[in-house]
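hey so u asked for the seq, here:
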Amino acid sequence: MVTLSDILSDLVRVEQGWRRKNVDGVWKFVRLEERLSKGIKILEGEGVEAVRSKVMKELRINDKEEHIELTYEMP
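ran it, structure tokens below
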């Protein structure tokens, strides 16, 4: 899973990890510590598929072999 966070004008920080539910039923994002975050330029009005494509290209993810989900977390 890839999460988008910290929107700064048109720059988005992308982190890799997954969501996990704790014993209280609250979902938390768990970042992969061995992966660095990256900044990706997102233009106003771009749809989810355009953002997904940019993320996959930037992180060199093969969409034929892997699946990603995008989530947003307030800074």
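The mean pLDDT is 79. DSSP finds one helix and five strands in the chain.
lmk if thats what u needed
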